[in-house]
Amino acid sequence: MPGTKIRIRRELLEYLMELAREFYPNEFAGFLRERDGVFEEVLIAPAGHFGRTSAFFNTWMLPLDESIKGTVHSHPDNVLIPSPADRWFFSKFGGFHLILGYPFGLGDFAAYDSDGNPVEVEIVP
Ligand SMILES: [Zn+2]
Q1: pTM higher than 0.85 for the full model?
Q2: What percentage of the chain's residues is helix, strand, coil (to nearest 5)?
Q3: Ligand 1 centroid – CA 16 distance (Å)
Q4: Is residue 52 very low, low, confident or very high in pLDDT (cuts 50, 70, 90)?
Q5: Each residue's pLDDT tens digit, 12-39
Q6: Are 11 and 124 in contact (CB under 8 A)?
Q7: How many angstroms separate the alpha carbon of residue 56 from the centre of ligand 1?
Q8: Is the peptide bond before 82 cis (omega within 30 degrees of 0)?
Q9: Which of 8, 15, 29, 91 is 20 to 30 A distant from 113 in Cα terms?
């Protein structure tokens, strides 16, 4: 959707970058919980789903929690473009998806909708 914008709490984004740095060189993955239109919280995906390659999310592990409106995962290679496996997963999951790229500074991310189209991100203080 053109003009789509998501909002994320600055504190959460800083925390996500910290997690991505901690997990490096492996990928970090989690689910994003939204409150009043703002992404506020991350649920870290089970440890067995981390690795050096993508496609760690399986649809059978989707949490049954209606406040979860998106996902986040890191790309240790700094490519902020969704892989084919990412796009497949986004389309199954719906919502919005953050990709964090090495070196995981506050600006090293991109966001996509469930069709894999880039969306604008507003960082909320
Ligand atoms: Zn990916």
Answers
A1: yes
A2: 25, 35, 40
A3: 15
A4: very low
A5: 999 999 999 998 988 888 889 999 999 9
A6: no
A7: 9
A8: no
A9: 15
Residue carrying the six token digits 């986004």? 90
What Rg value do the Cα atoms of the chain yield, rounded?
Answer: 13
Domains of the chain: 5-47+67-124 (3.40.140.10)
If you measure from the C-alpha of residue 38 to the centroid of ligand 1, how many angstroms do you get, rounded to a whole number?
Answer: 22
> Minimal CA–CA distance to 74: which of 47, 33, 102?
102
Q: Which two tokens stand for residue 103?
A: 């070196």
Centre of ligand 1 to C-alpha 83, Å, is 5
Please give the distance, rounded to the nearest whole angstrom, from the Cα atom of residue 76 to the centre of ligand 1. 9
